[in-house]
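Researcher: Structure for this, please.
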Amino acid sequence: MSGKPVDSKFDYSVERQKVSNQGPIPEGSYWISPADIWENNAIKSLLVSSRSAWGDYRITIRVSPGTQTHARGGFFIHGGDIPGSAGCIDLTSSMNQFIKDLKSLLGKSVNCHVPLTVEYSDAE
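Model: Predicted structure, token format:
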């Protein structure tokens, strides 16, 4: 899921994608790199953010040329206990498995780019 719910529902419309810190990550082409995996631990939790909001891991989402972000940025894939985000891709309890699978698939190739396409079937 991405963005914050409105009346308990997630709105992936193009207009909502333009809303900073509320709407979902805009549709388009992005990429991630395993080198950007940030692992939460007790010290980082105290210094940076809450584990309940971010989970045990986060990974930076980078914008590919040609993607219209509507002047938004700072996107991540992360987990956490609270469904929804300020525009990130929130995998909630599935984030740890995602990181495990990503590391297994790529092995020691941490300096590679993994394409990420964001597309909403119900965006209007």
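Researcher: Any notable elements?
Model: Strands lie at 28-32, 37-39, 57-60, 62-63, 76-79, 89-92, 114-118. The radius of gyration is 14 Å.
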